[in-house]
Specification:
Distance between the termini: 8 Å
Bound molecules: adenosine-5'-diphosphate, magnesium ion
Oligomer: single chain
Shape: globular
Strand order of the largest sheet: 3-2-4-1-5-6-7
Helix content: 40-55%
Number of strands: 7
Radius of gyration: 16 Å
């Protein structure tokens, strides 16, 4: 399955999610290819740190910030992988547009803040464009960096905001604001691997994977 993690807004947690999803799928025995579509190369950097530290499984990772290159490479190589996870950068880039035409699922993480909700409308236009050239792009939005406190109204408000944007389906599997996510990604690890572990973070990642794949 080809999954693009995309949002035209930066700093929402796309790379953190992409790295965690790629590693988690590899840990369950899938052949995974992580593509860094952002010229900042943060996902590639996390995977290099992982490789240098000798953490297994290793993750195949390539950086293609240029849309036409991303498109031709994925078309040529996709049969070799079970899952391809594309981290599609922060702007309305050619890589993001190319990725949308290739993907089965677009996963849009957004934080429970107004600017993030507005950005969803922006990406909705790109989803329309991709759907005008091919059928079957599933577009899902999930909450990221949600308030870890119980009884937070983040989830209900987020679900309501997404309900106003018909291009998206809201998946009620939020990733909350937890140090484990930031710490793990910086070491090239998923939250499933860090020591000491964070069970809540691990459970959130697992719930997202069950809902997606
Ligand atoms: N669930 C989370 N909890 C806490 N911090 C997070 C979480 N997800 C991302 N972050 C932090 O937020 C910042 C932006 O994340 P990043 O994945 O680089 O976003 P993007 O790729 O969208 O620019 C980073 O410092 C990252 O460690
Ligand atoms: Mg990033």
């Amino acid at each position: 399955m080809i999954v693009t993690i995309g949002n035209t807004k930066g700093g929402v947690g796309k790379t953190t999610l992409a790295v965690n999803l790629a590693i988690a799928r590899a840990l369950s025995g899938r052949d995974v290819w992580l593509i860094d579509g952002d010229r900042q190369g943060t996902a590639q950097m996390a995977i290099s740190i992982r490789a240098d530290a000798g953490h297994l499984p290793g993750i195949a990772c390539a950086t293609y910030p240029d849309g036409p290159t991303l498109r031709s490479q994925v078309q040529q190589q996709s049969a070799k992988f079970d899952d391809i996870i594309i981290d599609a950068g922060g702007r309305d880039s050619t890589a993001l547009r190319a990725a949308l035409v290739l993907s089965d699922v677009l996963l849009v993480p957004f934080q429970p803040r107004s600017y993030d909700v507005w950005a969803l409308n922006d990406i909705a236009g790109l989803v329309d464009e991709a759907r005008s050239v091919r059928d079957g792009l599933r577009a899902v939005a999930i909450l990221i960096c949600a308030d870890p406190g119980e009884g937070s109204t983040d989830n209900t408000e987020a679900a309501a905001a997404v309900a106003d944007i018909p291009q998206f389906e809201y998946l009620p599997v939020p990733i909350r604001r937890r140090k484990a996510f930031a710490n793990a990604a910086g070491q090239g690890l998923s939250v499933l691997e860090i020591k000491p572990g964070d069970k809540k973070a691990s459970d959130e990642l697992k719930a997202l994977i069950s809902a997606l794949f």
